[in-house]
Write a structure and sequence with these properties.
The protein is built from 3 helices and 6 strands, in the order H-E-E-H-E-E-E-E-H. By secondary structure, the chain is an alpha+beta fold. The radius of gyration is 15 Å and the shape is globular.
Length: 159
């Protein structure tokens, strides 16, 4: 989901790299190994592998993996537009299309609307063959948490 607009200025690129650093710093990502790439303003892609450690008793990925990756992809897509504050998920609607039985999966996030207090973004899960597995739409609002105060974010600005 690459942006088709003009090339971003250096400040936007630095913000995006800092958001990617923030993502890596989250302890939850030690449980769900994944890689976030911000592909443009309002656009993200998370690559992750699903293996049996993510399965429910019937041998497919548990819904937590759907939610986590869709929420993260949409959240970070929205946060590309907010440079001063950490966003909070206030609601998220999730739709399961197919079970994930394993392999490489991608969550692609896209900002839809809002730039002030509330932002809306969507995400979809696809497999290696570009087959959609699930999708979701989230609402995110600005928090009182400054991005610059978060170690994982600030690390990108350190000399």
């Amino acid at each position: 989901m690459a942006s088709t607009g003009p090339a971003p200025v250096a400040g936007a690129q630095l913000h995006w790299r800092a958001l990617e650093s923030l993502y890596v710093s989250a302890p939850i990502n030690n449980l769900f190994r994944s890689e976030l790439t911000i592909t443009g303003e309002g656009a993200t892609r998370i690559a992750f592998d699903v293996d049996p450690s993510c399965f429910h008793a019937a041998g497919a990925a548990h819904g937590t993996i759907y939610f986590k990756m869709l929420d993260d992809a949409a959240f970070y897509a929205a946060n590309t537009l907010v440079t001063d504050r950490f966003l909070l998920t206030t609601s998220f609607n999730l739709h399961f299309s197919r079970p994930i039985r394993g392999g490489r999966v991608y969550a692609e996030g896209r900002w839809i609307s809002g730039r002030r207090r509330v932002l809306v973004a969507e995400a979809r899960l696809i497999d290696d063959e570009e087959e959609e597995i699930g999708r979701g739409t989230g609402t995110f609002m600005r928090s009182h948490i400054a991005l610059s105060g978060l170690e994982g974010y600030a690390r990108a600005f350190a000399p």
